[in-house]
């Protein structure tokens, strides 16, 4: 960490995050106590799943990594879904994620896992960015998004669009159509739904960089975590994704286990709305896995050799350990 860097907490963000979670807890209480209509819970689920389309098939796989191409109707739909998610505009989301991939697990990584679980999960949003994030982030090419009309439009009107699509409509629909209490509707269909979607996304930055397997590249932090994959509909196969970030599936799997957003993109392709889906060749994947296995075996051999070299001087005055 830079010697001139000092952690600076953004107390406004801390306050807002606390308020968001308190309101979300109210929503959770109304849901589990059945003080909210079941229809409101179903509505919150529908809105939440729709918002996920704007984050994963949209901001992540389409606009950040360009893993496939989408025709205008699909791009507009995904942009509107992204507004419902309200996880920053497509441009900002993609910029931060491109920086994350280019400088993974360094101080230039916006949610560097080496700064701890909490920081990677949500703490990075509660403090000022590390200077390296800003400095090296400027080296990331964003010209493609700066010249895409749908992204430019959303970035210009993001506040208005998110208020209407992420707050106003999700809150008003249960109140207007089936008589839900307005506050209950706001806490459940808007705040609880929103906070749950945030934590689901954050799990990829935290859990999927800590606990799991590394069949493709053992030298990096990202791992394969099946639980995160099911929660996020396909984003938990993270060791694969960081090895082949341009694969539209974000996973090697031929099935849709925990990867329903791959199924969504496949459906859009069948409807003619998505095309040029990029896939890592099986031969390339197998070669990568073989190299990784070989590196792992060499590492274990090296460890065993060092263990054999341990020297202990019996007089108790000296103990030399070559293994460090």
UniProtKB/TrEMBL annotation:
Task: Enumerate the transmembrane spans.
Answer: 14-32, 157-177, 183-204
Keywords (alphabetical) are: Fatty acid biosynthesis, Fatty acid metabolism, Iron, Lipid biosynthesis, Lipid metabolism, Membrane, Oxidoreductase, Transmembrane, Transmembrane helix
What is the membrane topology noted in the UniProt record heading this document? Answer: Multi-pass membrane protein
Where's it found, cell-wise? Membrane
All copies of domain Fatty acid desaturase, residue ranges: 56-245
Would you say which domain of life the source belongs to? Eukaryota
Q: What cofactor does this one take?
A: Fe(2+)
Write out the GO biological process terms. Answer: unsaturated fatty acid biosynthetic process
Under the heading Pfam families, the entry gives: FA_desaturase (PF00487)
For this protein, what is any one GO molecular function term?
A: iron ion binding
**Cellular component GO terms, alphabetical:** endoplasmic reticulum membrane
Family classification: Belongs to the fatty acid desaturase type 1 family.
Free-text note on domains in this protein's UniProt record: The histidine box domains are involved in binding the catalytic metal ions.
Q: Indicate what this protein is called per its UniProt record.
A: Fatty acid desaturase domain-containing protein
For this protein's source organism, the top of the classification is:
Eukaryota, Metazoa, Ecdysozoa, Arthropoda, Hexapoda
